Structure formats: C-alpha cells, structure tokens
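Predicting holo structure, adenosine-5'-diphosphate bound.
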Amino acid sequence: MGMNAKDRIKRMFDGKRIALIGIGVSNTPILKILLECNPRSLLICDRKEDLPEDIVEMARGRAEISVGDGYLEPLTEEEFDYIIPSPGIRRDIPEIEEAKRRGARIETETRLFLSLCKSRKVIGVTGTAGKSTTTALIGEILSKSGMDVWVGGNIGKPLISAIDEIGEESVVVLELSSFQLQDIEESPNISVILNIFPNHLDYHKSMDEYIRAKERIFLYQGPEDISVFNGDDPICMAISQRCTSRKAFFSMCSDDVEEGAFLKSGLEGRIFVRHKGRDFPICDLDEIRLTGRHNVANVMAASFVSIALGARPEAIREAVYGFKGMEHRMEFVGEIDGVGFFNDSKATIPESTIAALSSFREPVVLIAGGYDKGVGFDGLGKEIAARAVGLVLIGQTAGKIREAVLSSDPKFEGRIRFAKDLREAVFLAFEMARPYKGIVLLSPACASFDMFSNYEERGKRFKEIIYKIGACLGGEEKRAEVSS
Ligand code: ADP
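Done. Tokens:
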C-alpha cells in the first residue's frame, strides 16, 4: 500500500471535473494540489476581477478562470463532479444547488484534511469568540510539553499542504469557524466549544443554522472522543445535551463538574483541572498575562485539553505565563501623556466589546462601529452607557450603536462623537481620554469591511496613527518601552 494522503487526493480527483469557488486562503493550497493531479477539467470561479498574479500564472493553460458578476454561470452550463467552495461561500446559492442536482459533490479543504489526517490527536476549537487565542495557547502548551504540534485551520496556513508530514503521534490543533464546520462529516478527537453568541447573521439564515453548523464539531465523534463545553454559556449547555461522546465542562461559576476546569470554591484565584477523578492545580489567575476575565475562560479550556492529552500542569503554567496574547486582541499599543491605547480590532461582535469594556477599571473612551452583520446592539449599548466615559463612532453601524446607547441612557448624548475615519476617531478619543488619564480602546463590535479590507488592516492603521501622535508629542521613549 504505502499510499500517502496526497496520492489519495490524486486518485480521488483523477479524471474528474472540478470547480473551485473562491480562490483565497483555503482554496489556493487545494489548487496547488489539484494541479499535480490529473483532473479532466479544472475551473476557478471568483467574483473578484483581478486575481493575484501567481494564481493566474498557475492556472495558465491548465485551468479555466471565471470572474466578475457572472462568475458562477459556468456551474449551470457544464457538468461537474466536485464543487470546492471557500468557507465563506453559501452552499445553497442557486448555481451550486443546480450543480448538486446534476450530480456534483461538495468537497472542502477542512473535509479533506479531517478525512486524510493520520493523527489520532486532532483538536478542534470553535466558538463565536476566543478561537484564535485558545487555539494558539493550546499549541504553545503542547509544544512546550515536547509534542509534535501542528496549528492551523482558520488560523495561519491551512494544514492540507502539510498533510503528509503529520504522523499518527502528531498533535493537530485546528481553529474551526462555522463556515468550515458546515459540511464536515468527521469530527476532531477533542472538540472545544467556547461560547455561542449571535454572529454572521448576514451569512447564516438564522441563529439555529449557525448553531447547527457549530455542533458538527462533535456530531461525528466516537465514544472515546471528548467534547469540552463552556458550562457558563446557556447555548453551549443546551447543545451539549445532543453530544454522545465524553463530555467536559469549564466554568468560572461552579466547581461542580465531573470532568473539566473550574475555580475551586474558596480558592477562586486558582484554576484547577479535573480529569479522570484527579484534580490538577494549574495556575493562579494573576499568572495570566492576557487582559480580561473572558481570557480566564479561554485558559481554562486550553488547560483541560492539555491535561487530557497528557501535558504536565507545570508546563501549562509556564506556557500560560509566557503567553502575552495575539496582535489585535486586547493588545496594548502604548501610552501617551497618561493615556493608554489598546487595539482590540479583532472584536467584531458586541460580546467581545462588552468583554473588552469590562476588562478595565480605568475610564475608557471607546472607538466602535463598522460593517453591519445584522446583529443587535442593545446589550452593548447598555454596557457602553454604564462603563465608558466617551464614545467615538465610525462606519456603517455608527447610527445603530448611538441609538442603542441612548435608549439605555439618553444623557450619554453629550459624550458621543462621530468621526469620518479612524484617524479622526483616534484624535477625538485621545482628546476625550486625556483629562481622565484614561484608556482609548479600539474595540469596534463590528467587522471592518465597510472601511478596510480586514480587521488586521484596521488594527495596523490604528497603531500607526498612535505611533505618529506619540512621535509628535515626544512619546517615542515610552513607546519603545511598552512594545518590548
Ligand atoms: P476568534 O478567533 O473566535 O475571533 P480571538 O481569540 O481572535 O477569537 O478573539 C476575538 C475577539 O474576541 C477579541 O476581541 C477578544 O478579546 C475577544 N474574546 C476572546 N475570547 C472571548 C470570550 N470568551 N468572550 C468574549 N470575547 C472574547
């Protein structure tokens, strides 16, 4: 035998008619693999008119390209064996439905990876917020524990390109979005559901559809596999009822668990993991360098997974202490004239901004607003009114957020400003925070697509603006200090 995963992919696609829908992070490595196969035909569809030069170059003479508004038309004109959509493409758009009716099967990077990966230690992390942080932290802990660790999925590079380097004893840590989970038929060996809040309602038809996609992370598990749920999240608890594999829970409120992570009553300052009847002390809360209570939950989830895989508590404690968080997530940028700046550009849902606001005791001026994903701002409005000393609004949702704040506290009006762009927002917020020697927090509660190409660009721009202000006001020294 000795067939490796790439050979199996080749056999699967040999002589087949294949369409890649969307050519981005997930499908580019798939295209590379397909070009080594021998498909009957290969088509790349993308709404974007200007595909990257390297894609066009790779496709030359070997794949058709269909771009622009009618990019999906070939799907209704020709026959296909496989449709390979990017995560963000809905599977029920008419052209894909039509292709399916005519016999096409859906395949994706995530499906291929899960079905071909040899590792028996695949960890999947999903949830509305905290996926990247928790995935990266698990990766750190297990690497520190000396394991052969592969981190990927929705974070970093898709691991399909490395599939043949991943062995039976390797550990794989995958961040999995609802988009990637929606059509999987194999689940990770250890699944984590961090929390479920309304999100992507511009994509998913309903909250129920979003939940159904997420719960696939454990739906295909065997009885020996483990699922880890947030015991403090009512939606997580409800869906845990449908899980038939081994269950574990993490909770900041209760230590009444058979398997999981908790703060022992009387010892609320310390995280414990309970696994197979034993309690392992992990670390004290003041040893966590990540900002905010919400990150305690993320550390708990990561600690349980690591203990279940045989990591030593001491290694977990060291890795947690060494983990300072990721760019664009509650990232400290610097201090100018007594005002601290935090970049939380990755906060693209109201719950993340609420978590960010409740992480500070200092007076906070919040910069929020952006692309409208169809989620409500009532809860956020209440938190802003209760916790912020000022609010600067940008983007499409500015008006909606203002209304939510005012319906909670009409007197807040005088503390709201509108800015035409991020630069103006930073200047206004700085001015408002200065008398308090407070915090300027970029935590938009919305995606960035109305003004930026993604949250990274938004966060980087925010930092650039601050560095410039710092340089003008002679804050250079402090900046060097804080970024070290
Ligand atoms: P994801 O990959 O799920 O988007 P990240 O780790 O990148 O999660 O964090 C995204 C945003 O959510 C950041 O603003 C972060 O501070 C916030 N966040 C992280 N964990 C939680 C949580 N458990 N509850 C609420 N917000 C959270």
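Residues 476-484 have pLDDT under 50 and may be disordered.
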